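In this section we walk through a basic example: taking a raw amino acid sequence and producing a predicted 3D structure, encoded as discrete structure tokens. The instruction is simple. Fold the sequence below.
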Amino acid sequence: MRLDGKVAVITGAGQGIGEATALRMAEEGAKVVVSDINPDTGKAVVEKVRAQGGEAEFVAADVASVDDVKALMAGAKEAFGKLDILHNNAGVHETNFTAAAGSLELDEEIWDKCVAINLKGTWMCMKYAAPLLAESDAGAIVNAASIGGLLGYPMGSAYGPSKAGVVQLTRVMSIDLAAQGTRVNSYAPGNTDTPMVQKYYNESGSAEEVEMIKQQLLGTHLFPRMGEPREVANLVVFLASDEASMITGANFVIDMGTTAWRGMRS
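The resulting token sequence is shown next.
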């Protein structure tokens, strides 16, 4: 198995790509620390991991809180004795908090909150995981960026820059952690069938509106379907594994071809 004997911390693991990654890493032999701000969803994922024969523990954490981040890393050490893999997956979008998400109307408090979770939280998790990862023979960090950090989108004046920052932070941290043998990479998913994306059509009104939004989401895909969280998790597992031992400081786009063309399917 790709991750046999390794210990992984996954933030934002209560749903979506984080949940899928926890399950996939456990399938590949890793012991998993499931972390989320929501204890109900986080503990539910732990039970799913255990039901499939894996080992998992839950540690609640708000990655925007330095005390929570420190406690998360200490909890991983206490639970499994070491740390080999950190998957910085926790993230939010402006529209999680407000419908007034345009650049000129967005409240400063919400902008600060998005950046604190998406960018500062990623940095703090890497900073406080680094001493534990230094003890690993093959430490690896995998950060969740987004194609929203590579291209401009409406209603993304906090999310987009924060995810662009994750890509650059990945490069910088790959330099800083190279001496201790820790690899640092990121990935940029496009529209994936997660709760963050589903809310755009689940909260819509008529069936016609829902269908229109779904077509807009799929219209930029070269393959006319939504990406699945497990597909993204497969990439995360690869980047965390020894199979990616030559790869550090890189960002991988996984977006159904969205960034390969300028088209929109009608």
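Looking at the output, two observations stand out. The first strand starts at residue 7 and ends at 10. The longest helix spans residues 108-133. In the next section we compare this with other chains.
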